[in-house]
Structures are given as structure tokens and as C-alpha cells.
Amino acid sequence: MIVRCSPALAAGFTLMELLVVVALLSALALAGFSVVAEDQGQVRYNDTRARMERLRLAILGPIGPAWDGDWRLFGHVADNGRLPASVAELLSSPAGHAVQAAVDPIFDPRPDALCAQDGSESPLSWTAAQRLLKGHRGDYLGGAAVNGEYRDGFANRGATDDASNFGWVLVAAGGGLTLSSLGGDGVTGGSAVYDSDQILIIGTHDWQVDLNGWQVTVVNRTGADRSVADPPLRASLLWFRNGASGGGWHRVTTQSYSGCLDGTGDGLVGGVPCTDRVQLAFDATCDPGIATTPDSKVPMGRHLVVLLSDADGLAHTSDDTVLAAGGVPIAIQVALFPGADRPAVTLELR
Fold first, then answer.
1. 12 φ, ψ (degrees, to nearest 5)
2. Domains of the chain by residue range
3. pLDDT score recorded for residue 12
4. Secondary structure of residue 322 in the 3-state scheme
């Protein structure tokens, strides 16, 4: 049997039918491209957020308890005592900066007007437990850079500071830091979801701890009474700051105590009732002799608290001396975290 096509079928598609088919295919292709573009924008947006979080972690370390209620001290601030000046500083140690090592703290009886220490009393025989691990650690981003660069998810480039910030916008002001990605359009602002800027703000409360009101307890374990005629006692906190001239040390000091301390356990000194312990309090300045500034804020991290004898009763003068027991300075490491309770510290006269 022979099957023959009708004339209508043999003629094929009409021009109108072809146009409809082409229009439908174009619409489907456009929709596909839109979905792909949307997916790419979301991927780049999410990647930028993840990269920004990694930058925050590199600067401040983890937020929240790590184990047994303790937090880990990690990051640029804890190691160097300050915020980074650029993104590149999180990849390698800048010129002149001290590299990370266990270092002996420096105690200067007479710090400068900013409470920075440029000299050394002594030598002081610090123990291993009193040395501090300080200095630039190297790559705080854990190998996340590509060809020595760490850009946002949109691969933005900076107009003037690309070599130092890799397209991120870093602004330091008011003791804090703002780090921004300019989004998909690469310019400030933007109203579209993926074009709008993404911003990380680090305020002073995120990386500093105020010592104002914090107290250090001193206990007399010598077995001998300490009378009011003995030199006044103070405590100082020594903290490290890294810079272009290497590592330096700063000192924040408490008010003094010039009363008695019972060391024999009878509650008396010279027949007068007296306790065996006293609290030395930090105030709103790094030097109790300074009326206003500089203040008592110190960077998060591990620092050293030392016990002092202050013969003239004036802080940060040449007679300030670190007290020792058996040739070892009376000092203890402390860990300070922003937004957390300051630790209880006890120094013992022995």
C-alpha cells in the first residue's frame, strides 16, 4: 500500500509558525541566561560574605567559648596589639615588624607620655610561664590567598591601593576599622542586591578591654608583717605592640597602697588590726598621675601583670621596681577578651 502526503503537510511550516517557534526558543534561552546570571551573582555574593568572615577571624580570632568555657586567643590583634593597617598585612609580616616568638616583657620605670616603654629595668629573670608569645605570625588567612592576593567574590580591584588591599576598602577611624566589598558593580553604594556594598565593622569594643575598675589582689605570704613605713605597692599590666620599629611594650598601672599587710596570721601589725590582703585598682588612665589621657584600654590578648614597689608614691617614676621572690619577678600572665569578664588575679608576696 502506498501512503501519500497531503499537499498541506508537504508544504511544511508556515513563516508565522517558524517565527513563533523562534520566539519561544529565544524566550527559553533568555530565561536560562537570567537563571545562570542570578546563580552566579548569588555564588559571588556568598563567597564575598565567607571571605569577609575569614578576614574577621584573621583579625580578631573566634568569638565565643572554645572549650571548658575558655576562648582561644588567636589573630592579628592578640599577636600584635593593634588592628592591621591593610589586608596585605594579614598575609605576611610588614617590614621592620617583630616576627612571632616567645619574648621577655620589658619593664621601664619611666615610660613616655603615652605609657610606652623604651627602656629596661634590670635584667629581670622572667620564667618560661612569664614570657609571652608575641609578634607577627605570617599568614593569618591560612593559605586562602591566590597568587599572593585575597580579593572579594566579585574580584574587585582598587583604584589606588590594590597592592595593599586587593580591591577591599579599608578605613581606620576612631580606634576601629571598616572593611568593605563594593559588590558586583565595583563602586560605592548600589541598590541592587548583588551591587550593594558589604561592610564589616570592627569597633573598639570588639578588640579592646578597658581596665578601669579592675582589681588585682595582693596577699602577704612572707611570714613577716608589712608596715605602713614600707614602700607603697602597685601593680602594672605590660602589653605588647608591634610596629615598623619592631615590638614595643606599654604599661598600665594601678593606684598605690601604702597601708599595712599582716604576714604572721594574727591579724595584727604593730598591735593594730590589719588584713593580709589588699586590692589594687586600675583607674581610667594608664598612669595614675595623668588626669585624663591616655586611657586604660588595652588590646585583647595575653599580657603580664607585675607587682611593684613604689618608694616615692608616684607612678611611672625612676624608683618603680618589680618585686621578686627568690630572684623571680612576682608576675602572672592574664588573658583578656573583649566583652568578657576580666579575670580574677592574685599576686603573692613571698
1. 75, -160
2. 209-349
3. 63
4. strand
